[in-house]
Amino acid sequence: MLKNYIKIAYRSLIREKTHSLTNIVGLTVGIASCLLILLFISHELSYDKYHEKADRIYQLYIAASFGNNEIQSAKTAAPIKNTLELEVAEVEHATRLLNITRPIIRSRENSYIAEDFYYADSNFFETFTVPFIEGNPQTALAKPNTMVITQEMARKYFGNANPIGRVLKVNQHEIEITGVTEKMPSNSHFQYNFLASLTTLRVNTWDSWLTSNLFTYVVLKPGVKPEHLQEKFHQIVYKHVGPEVQQIMGIDIDSFEEMGNTYGFFLEPITDIHLHSTLDNQHNPGGNIAYVYFFSTIALFILLIACINFMNMATAKYTNRLKEVGIRKVLGSRKSQLIMQFLIESIIISLAAVILAMTVVELVLPLFNNLAGKEMELSYFNNWIALPALLTFGIIVGVLAGSYPAFFLSSFKPITILKGKAGSNVSGSKLRGTLVVVQFAITIALFVGTFVVKDQLSFFKNQNLGFEKDGIIVLKRTHTLGENHEVFREELLKNPNLINASYCSAIPGYDFDGTTTTIEGKPSEEMITVGVVNADNHFLETLGIELSEGRFYNEAFSNDSKSIIINQRLADIGGLENPLQERLMLPNIENNQLYPAEIVGVVTDINFESLHREVRPMIYTKLEGAGWLMAIRLQNENISEAINHIENLWNEFAPNEPFIYSFLNSDLEQLYTEEERTSKIFTIFSILAILIASLGLFGMASFTAEKKTKEIGIRKVLGATEHSIFMMLSKQVIILVICAAIIAWPIAWFVMKGWLENFANRVVISPWIFIISTIAAFLIAIITISYQGVKAAIANPVDSLKYE
User: Fold this and answer.
1) CB-based burial, 84-114: b 16+ in 10 Å, e otherwise
2) What is the pTM of this model?
3) Are 108 and 138 in contact (CB under 8 A)?
4) Which residue, among 127, 129, 100, 94, has the nearest Cα to 113 in the 3D structure?
5) First to last CA, the chain
6) More confident of the two residues 336 and 173
7) Would strands 629-634 and 498-504 be described as parallel, antiparallel, or unpaired?
8) What are the backbone angles phi and psi of residue 537, rounded to the nearest 5°?
9) For residue 330, which of 3, 124, 276, 674 sits 20 to 30 Å off, Cα-Cα?
10) Interval 723-738: pLDDT, tens
């Protein structure tokens, strides 16, 4: 019986070559798109789950609130590790990580900038699962000045030689290599190339509980839940954090909490970090669970459109098979047999599409990986579940796509079919109209989503950030110039292509320090968390930042080292009506005491961070000496010549240091990499969805023109023009697109409004986006059916009347 079903299905598919090809191509594109998106989603959901203790590993973080400040930081203080292991019995062990920003590594006479360099505790490999190639994971980081590197770095620095026992100089430390590991998988929330022993930095002497610069991970004992530890965490705050709070603020921890303030330690599952963490100071910008929902919806839409195409085409062609159904019913075929016949045909098409889709995925996956910034792979034979899952997926798609046609075609009574009355049934045409409306509602919604995402990305790129970002070169590691920094700057500016230059500790788009401050005379509970940037006298002029009140740093004022400049945001939050008459209380790092700093200027607000966040209150302090960065403003012409001049001068003043620079506008674009990728992926899959819908509409147009062949011939004989014939075939599409827009507009508005709420600075969804999306969908529909419409309109009426 099955053999007979397959044989009939094969003959039917061969007989309707165009119909079958349209369905297979539509399903292939739909399934391939769906597989790519599912692969992306699966990769996003798999972060950090490969660790053997993944269900027991948590990241410790600080959550605090005081005054109008809310702080949630992934970085914690050094003493917390030993305290947790000694005072919290539920903790199996804890381990810490310290990230070092691009240190210099020297090997023989060569210098390199190291990426992803971390210091770690000796029990790092008890916490995280990383395969060792050389060395002992239990002892590799036990001693100071030891380091584990990845196999990739081992080949880079030592070729095929065994690196164990070799020494690399990292900044001022000579560090011995004691282990080689594989690279951590791409689905890790952090990755290292170099992992040095944290004891090298004498971390055990770091005893401040309010200086948070380490990542701390906790492995809980089996069966322990994070909520079981909150009381013990609270006791740690009282015992260890409280004395430092009293020293700085002058109040004990009880009074601190009675004022409505909070300070506590909490745990976040390591498997939640990539998609769900909203903590400040994380290793790398993570993903976003909203994008997982976003792309899941697109995958569902694309697959739905492909299935709708199949159902539309199958029900549209039903009249060609009505006699077959009627005769088979008269000869004794049961309804269940007919349903099985049509389902098998559908499943064959679906499985063929799955096989083709697998080929397409293999071909385009490298391009998709490059676009998405991932390292995904689809292993059919290494994973025992992959092929059965794809086979099952194909069968499910086939059943879903073919279910309605199967039940629809098998439901007619033989007498109705053989009398020729089944073809007049209008339920099929109503269903096809409904399905087309659904297709175009999805298409219009995808258009709206694409336009909104692109608008938001354009807003990010073109928004006035409060400073000049074009024509600025950022020179790195300028602190190595030492006492020669001023001479270096003077020599730089002798070149007419260079307008100005400024040393600083941070620049927009780069990390900056933070602290807390209060306005002199106000109670300590009204502390404000501020960002801190150290800058020289030329900072404002170089970056084109405007001054609102007072002045910036100037060589004419000898006491500038004790003065500060604030931004307008800080003045507003602090309620400073006359900020130049106020002083801020700032902590002295050396003795943890507060000292008053006079406000001598107020600058306009600039976006130091990405537009995902609101502008923070900031203070600018006087930089003594050279900063880590130097901002250099260039003329718009002769940029290559200017860079060559900077490089030559750098090699003269810092011959042993690598020349590292970047353009500020490029650095700022990196802040929106995730949105850039999302926009591109969203656009590509939206286009594919529209292509699939167009294939279905093309098939429907062919069917409509075919069914109306005689009608068109009669109309032309009676004097109908080609234009009126075309409009007759097109008017139904206009109605369907209008109905689709009515459905799509509120859904698209609701979804995209929710997406935009992820950004502190966002665009307003323009009504024109909905209108343009609808017009675009309508034009695509008209272009798709125009071939068949024009062909039918210009056909010879004699041929039309001889049809059939």
Assistant:
1) beeebeebbbbbbbbbeeebbbeeeeeebeb
2) 0.81
3) no
4) 100
5) 34
6) 173
7) antiparallel
8) -65, -20
9) 3
10) 676 666 667 777 878 8
